[in-house]
Amino acid sequence: MTLAVVVSLAGFFVALAFVLLWRLQRRHRRELSDRDASYRALLEINVRHYRDIAERDARYRHLLEEAREGVVAVVDEHLVFANPAVMKMFGLTRDEEWVGKRFFDFVAPESRPNLPAMRGERAPVSASPERYEVVALSADGSRFDMEITPAAMTYQGRAATQAILRDVTDRKRAEQALKESEESYRVLVQTAQHGIINIDAESTILFVNPATEKIFGYAAADLLGRKLTMLMPESHRHVHKMGIERYRKTGVRHLNWEALQLPGLHRNGREVPLEVSFGEVHRNGQRFFTGTVRDVTEREHALEALRQSEEKFRSIFDFATLGIYQSRRDGSLVTANATLAAMLGYDSPEELMRKNLFEIYADPEVRRTLLERYGDAEEGQGLELLWKKKDGSPIWVELHFHAVKDTGGAGHYFEGFVHDITERRNSEAEKRRLEGQLIQSQKMEAVGQLAGGIAHDFNNLLTAIAGYSELLLGELPPDDPRRSYAEEIRRAGERAANLTQQLLAFSRQQLLEPKVFDVNGVVTGIETMFRRLLGEHIELRTRKASDLWRVKADPGQIEQAVVNLAINARDAMPDGGTLMIETANAWLDDAYSQTHMPAQAGAYAMIAVSDTGIGMTPEVKARLFEPFFTTKERGKGTGLGLSTTYGIVKQSGGYIWCYSELGRGTTFKVYLPRAEDAMAEAPAPPPPAAHPGSETVLLVEDEPEVRSLVQRILKMQGYTVVTAANPDEAIAIAREFKGKIEMMVTDVVMPGMSGRQLAERLARSRPEMRVLFVSGYTDDAVVRHGVIDQGTAFLQKPFTPTVLARKVREVLDAPPDHFKNS
């Protein structure tokens, strides 16, 4: 082989080696490039994977934190994780309150044995997760119902339990309420008086209650699964079938099944009148009907009886003794009976019904007020109302009414029952008037007692004033300038005494000297006096009955009473008029006494004093006889004139009445009881002046001023005076005094014991002792009804020394049987 060939071959193999090496290098570079791309792709996949894991962990963490249900992780019974819902559920505020604590610390002791899964024990595998209901404990110790759903897990390489916690307190309460409600409805259905039936859309009976069995005579087992038409008569089955068929096709009920009146078919073949009501129920996408069935046999019988008796009740309505009507709110009358028409003066109920109730009320506003007060659903009982008749005359009625809904339920009408009480109202008005008279009389009695008490106390003071002023005048020489002072004191005392006499007259406690006399003589004396006193602008007329009955009274007091009435009449006619004084016999019957309390029926002599003056209002008339009440100007009247007259007449056993209208004058009528006694004899001559004495006198007086004065007066007359301030002292003196006591002067009214009781007490040990009673008023045992007891010595305060000395001498000088000690 030549060198050229070798060189050529060597060059060829070198070239081939370079080609092969180049191709190997090229493939190696390609492989390195592919591997780098793979590495880069793998790196990107890992980055995305870890990013997804982080995002998923964030989502899980967010879900756990925002979850409404509690989530816990438990390792060896200790809590290692709890989300915020758990903390809220148990009332925890910080993680430190649960970290490291046992899970069972938050479970009630009685529920702990029921949670084996929370101790790491594995429950048998089941298709659904296990749920446990336990009683949980809040941080504050309160208890609530909790549901636990546990699941096994691994936590940081350790076996753990994850649990979902739910507060099911509200659900448990709702379940209990539902259970109780279902039980209540079950009892209600089973005990209902009405039948209850459930059917489906094919009219198949699904349920009946015991009442349904009773109504139709079938047992429940005989009805369930059967068609409802078996409980209907043949004549009504087609109606029901048509309704069911229409409903199945359209969903619209053909009939209004609410409160239908239908016949039912009893097992024995008898038709039963029923009231049926059905309603639609949807359950699990299907339609059912539930209905109530009521046997109205008794009601139908009652309605039939009512229809049969309608004519009878109509007759009762028309001829009832009470007025009966029905009216609407607007006052229009729906019906009225003949009694009401006659009561109101109408010829027929039809004529009355053309009227409106607002026209029948005397005041239409009264009916409007009643409508507002009682409304539509109330009733009014015993309302006393003023209506008017057809002719316009008033009639008082007692109304009983109640509101009733009309048959359509659209409104109300009123049923009223009317009773005519006009006569009763008139009698009640008269009764109220008499009660007013009685109250006025009782008031005057009370005022009289007050006035008498004031006069009594005042008389004690006046006794001292009058007595000491007279003693002072007796000691002063005629030319002594101080006599004028003493005279003024005495005159003031006399004026005050006159005032107390007027008060005593009003209170009927003055001392009277009754006699039988003719009142005409009193009127004649007044006529003579008044013709001089009355001016020319007043005309005085008298009319005296010739056969006037005599009366027994104090003539002077009766004269004073008539003079007071005449003066009052004169003052009531400032512009002139006529004053009439007349007498007549009057017989007051029972009817008069019943309407003029407290007058008694009987025979009376009447004195009437009338004027044509200004009259008086009812308000003035009501206070007419009150002491110190006057309508005159200040300084022109004391207000005691008429009150004095009232007291004189009452004390004389009579009655006084006033009749007056404003602007039409006034008439006073005085009634004095007729006397059967003989006429009084001529008055006795005045007693002689008293002469001095030497007897011993026991003086008993609780007023120091009066006691001192009487003691001084009696000593000046020569008597020996032993004084006592009260009855107890008098009894002690009478027991211890060794000498003879010829006389006792005692006040009548004293604390503890009256003067009469004292006299009766001392009469046992000193029967010979005379007694003189003194008093500022006479409404006691000494003076009864203003008349002195026969044989009783009495002296009324105030008195002068002369009067006292004369009375003491008179009692001491009288025969033994002339005065009694008690």
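Second entry:
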Amino acid sequence: MAVLGIHDGLGASASTIEKGNIIGAVSEERFTRQKNDVGFPFNSIEYLNENFDEINQIAISWIGGSAFIRRFLPKYEEKRRLLWRKQIKKPSHSKMKLNNIVYNFIQNQKPKRLWHSLGKTASHSLEKRIKKTGLQFDKFYYVDHHMAHAASAYYTCGFDPCLIITLDGSGDGLSGTINIGRKGDIEKIEEFEASKSLGLFFGAVTSALDMRYSEDEGKTMSLAPYSYPIRIRELEKIINIKDGKPNSNFTIKNELLMAEWIKNNILWKYNRESLAYAAQHHLENCVMEIFRKYMGETGIQKIAVAGGVFANVILNMRLREMPEVKDFFVFPHMGDGGLSTGAALYVDHMINGKFNKKQIDNVYFGSSFKYQEIEQTLKKYKNKIEYEERSDISKFTGELINKGNIILWFQDRMEFGPRALGNRSILAPAGNIECKDKLNLIIKRRPYFQPFCPTLLEEDANKILENYDKPNRFMSVGYTSKKKVKDKIKAVVHIDNTTRPQVLGDENKKYKTLIQTVKKENGLGIVLNTSFNKHRYPIVCSPNDAVWALLNTGVKHLSIGDFYVRKKD
């Protein structure tokens, strides 16, 4: 009997947990092809229900009043998302000020009992939706937003006892929590109000830089190294740390209005790079201060984290390198898309008492396709493509990469989370700048300052990375690369000599064989690995998505299952 976790907000997803183990987990965007889908995850639930053991319990994340707004007014949530993506007209200044007044009033969702009551009322409509899927189940459970984040980190990190820290924009009236995980139980010892949000602050800076709120924060992080060191004290007035907690007397809380204020009062005095640098370093210093405070109070030095703030891999690098930190883990789907997993893990432990004490080593929790399904798809496109079956697909693809080719790589079960980790990836030589530039031109359309990332073999990690201690399987932490190998990996190293690697062990043998083939040519087991998707589209899910991407980009080669595919001339 399994527990089904559901998240029906930004990054909608569903997950299945059985006896402490993640059996399946998928994001709705992969099925609908709408990036960061905010709808109800019908397709995700259908996939999990058809492919895994009988589900008899339902865990729903996000129970506060914001759930009430989202579930009864889904169009409001969709419109908000379109605003963040700059796909509809920006509201007038007066309307943003009105929204700010309302947001100031409701942001912290107090009194809690009232807001939870509203949230559960809205969740009854959610229960009706779930019943429409045909699922047979015994009971619904509701899990607080930040408890779901905390559970996702704790039940997958392998640490016990463990200090669990969550930080994001906001959820259920909070922007973060401090928790202790011990013997499978989670105790919350501190919480941070939504009105004092490090995630909102960094998102507003991103928007002030004319990028997309809640999506392009990684670009702000990537832009920062292009500046000279600078401290902008006005940013510290927006948010700071007091007694180990985020503190703010800043009256603007609406993300777009805050972005407008930053643009008008700060950015006009500095360049974009300087603002990005100052914001990145202020975020790092704030979070490090929080870490020091609660490590000191609890005496616990093994830390697991979740929440959108921890999508920032350079922040995570600084945290990992703190001398006080003994061990550090970031849940791979750290944003709201991971809430379905956390909610289900929490309920599964509550019901069954099972606690997986091993750290997860992969996130291959999504759909896979049989030989016949792939071949049937390829036959549909026989007028546009030609293909051949290869029993040596990994070695063959590795040899193509060694010849300077970009490869679309589609294998086995789809990854869960924002990173491509060797099953839905675009691969290229790690030392070939020309391939990197082609990727930007024909598929990704990234700005000049946004780097690509590598997958490297665990056996070669010490040759490539400074201060390497243990493998990070999920591209969730940055490292400094060694200068002596820079020429061999220049396509995956940023201007500040940092890189965000996936360190590969034996968890994906087909992918490992490919990289071992690459190593025979250049002496290092490393490839450029970016997500298999066209600009503004989600990562591909099905063989049909993969062939569509081949036909609609300038890439010439696709390795899918045991088939090598290329476009006809």
